[in-house]
Amino acid sequence: MPLTLEQLNTASTADALQWLNGLYEHSPWIAEQALARRPFRSLAHLKHAMAQAVRTAHADAQLELIRAHPELAGKAMVAQSLTAESTHEQSKAGLTQCTPEELERIQQLNAAYNARFGFPFILAVRGPRGTGLAQREIIDTFARRLDNHPEFERAEALRNIHRIAEIRLNDKFGAEPLLGGDVWDWQEQLAEHSDPGFAEKGQLTVTYLTDAHRACAQRIGQWMRACGFDSVETDAVGNVVGRYHGAQPAAKYLLTGSHYDTVRNGGKYDGRLGIFVPMACVRELHRAGRRLPFGIEVVAFAEEEGQRYKATFLGSGALIGHFNPAWLDQKDADGITMREAMQHAGLCIDDIAQLQRDPAQYLGFIEVHIEQGPVLNGLDLPLGVVTSINGGVRFVAEMIGTASHAGTTPMDSRRDAAVAVAELALYVEQRAAQDGDAVGTIGLLNVPGGSINVVPGRCSFSLDLRAPTDAQRDALVRDVLDALARIAQRRGLRYTLEESMRAAAAPSAPALQHHWERAVDALGLPVFRMPSGAGHDAMKLHEIMPQAMLFVRGQNSGISHNPLESTTHNDMQLAVEAFTQVLHQLAEEHQP
């Protein structure tokens, strides 16, 4: 029989330690420290307690924990001396059935990895879905991680150890994250659609109104109908809109959703997680025959990334009346105008103006999104509550000096444009680091017509400056531009500067943010508040109604806009449960 949380909470320390034996290889001290925090409110609470025991341990204890794990397909497997848990996991991933060539390759990687890092390669081979990784994926991950910095790789090893323990704990308690698995499966299936030129390479790219984009819309609509939405339609800009009616015909709606387009060669979860989490919640309400005092409107926004046309947030912008007719005449790389693409997709351009929502008919907008960063992963936390979406300003600029001979121009006589921009980049790094959650980036830096033996006379560059509040952002911008002027004057240079984008910060509505906080706490998890450095559809809805977001931890140190973007079915399950908690809270709040 599976273990229960009540049994664990009431058992003697000796019995509890015996039950938790094997979660962390040959390291009973982790469970012992975690058990001191009983009673546990949930399995998530227990998992976090164990992760915190490791997190607060001395570096030597962490290293000993890593070294307690066997090599993948290594000597212990061949000698059949693995623990029962490791034997099961390596067998489930097919490592016990490696071909001689695969086994030789893994052993070569084991040797190279140990030589570089001094500890064995750790990978949760049952994977983010819990069903096991393919041998090819294991070998590719092994090879990729050989290039990591040693400190980063040490942290990555610990993260994988926590995932191994999480899956083993699921087994002990008979806990299967079914809803998280469904959300995972929807995203995997949707990722089957990709634009030509990328699909052939196994890369995910879905840009506005391509065949792959339209196939995604059709599939999302089909799944919405299967989930029990009362109405499903594709609107005049390609958004897929599903409505689950409230208990009364005149009930307001809670608006939620995210985007289903992607960047080029992107990840499977950016945006799409925010569509499928509320879909799973609606399906469970429908299965239970339950109606809430408000309706739920889930919108799969057709365009957020601005990859095919320069029209970022087109899908969510249309809902607040922000559709620029000039966009219709933009052409993509193949010379196809947006108007032509919309007509080909069967969209009615004349109806776009009718998409604008009346905020009086809504409780607000909430969005679930993968974090797209390393913070939650680094803290061993599955969920984070967003306090604000950072405001940002972008500039395109050029530093102008004098091109001259690299060999004959003395160092004190140079007018080097590139060095000046390098100095500015260092200032941006230092200034942003002083200011809480502000960030600054020079992402583009180019010496036009540069030569190896010429002092750069010109250097074009970009500036991207962001902060959680507009006042904080504006102070950062002011200081950076002042520094730019000082650097140019001191070095005898001039520059051009053009503001290319300005976005206001979008602080979360306190009431909705509190609902997310209560939901996370109800799951037995610490409430961690954080700003969003990336822009989201919630920024647009913020202009007409209250909004608040929930972040879900990403794997691989939270990397996003990248094929390595990932999260686990356990974390997705927690996101569904948190969303359900918010629905219950709002239902109590709006009872007639």
Task: Outline the structure in words.
This protein is α+β, with helices and mostly antiparallel strands and 592 residues long. The protein is built from 21 helices and 16 strands. The protein has helices at 5-10, 13-19, 28-35, 43-55, 59-67, 75-78, 84-92, 100-117, 135-145, 150-173, 178-190, 211-227, 273-287, 314-319, 338-344, 375-379, 417-433, 470-491, 510-522, 537-541, 569-589, and strands at 231-234, 240-244, 253-259, 295-301, 362-370, 383-389, 391-400, 404-405, 439-441, 445-446, 454-455, 458-467, 494-503, 506-507, 529-532, 547-552. Strands 1, 2, 3, 4, 5, 6, 14, 15 and 16 form a nine-stranded mixed β-sheet that branches. Strands 7, 9, 10, 12 and 13 form a five-stranded antiparallel β-sheet that branches. α13 links the parallel β3 and β4 (295-301). The longest helix is centred in the N-terminal third of the chain and has 24 residues, at 150-173.
Question: How is this structure best summarized?
Answer:
The protein is α+β, with helices and mostly antiparallel strands and 592 residues long. 42% of the residues lie in helices and 15% in strands.
